[in-house]
Specification:
This protein is mostly beta strands. It has one domain. The chain has one helix at about 1-15, and strands at about 30-55, 60-65, 65, 80, 90-95, 95-120. The strands form three sheets. The chain has a two-stranded antiparallel sheet. The model has no long low-confidence stretch (mean pLDDT about 85).
Length: about 120
């Protein structure tokens, strides 16, 4: 009963008030511009330290006109294949420890400038 009364009241009120109408909305500007200018500076400082280490030892033998056995060893005697002819011989031993270091200090500065322009028209 209350529902039917509410529906009837809505019909009666709708008849007297009429239909809602949309109104046009006009912007308050016709043209315009916006400019923007931004500057920033970034500085990055880096310190890089690298140390290379060997945990064991290395032994290298190389040469030409030298008799090098399949398993050369530190303190071994080597002989020329053709005595009296030219030869070349190199023996290198490197024990455990630091094999190299790298140190880099640098500063990088970046400047950024941004200019923008926006134009509005109607």
């Amino acid at each position: 009963m209350k529902r039917s009364l509410a529906i009837a009241a809505g019909i009666v009120l709708g008849t007297f008030t009429g239909v809602a109408q949309a109104s046009p909305v006009a912007p308050s500007f016709t043209t315009g511009t916006v400019t923007s200018h931004t500057e920033s500076t970034t500085t990055v400082s880096e310190s890089i330290r690298q140390t290379n280490m060997a945990t064991g030892w290395t032994y290298t033998v190389t040469g030409t006109n030298i008799d090098i056995p399949d398993t050369p060893a530190l303190g071994m005697s080597y002989t020329q294949i053709n005595p009296g002819e030219a030869f070349q011989f190199s023996e290198t031993y490197m024990g455990p420890g630091i094999t190299g270091t790298t140190e880099i200090d640098r500063t990088i500065t970046t400047n950024t400038i941004t200019d923008s322009l926006s134009v509005f028209t109607q």
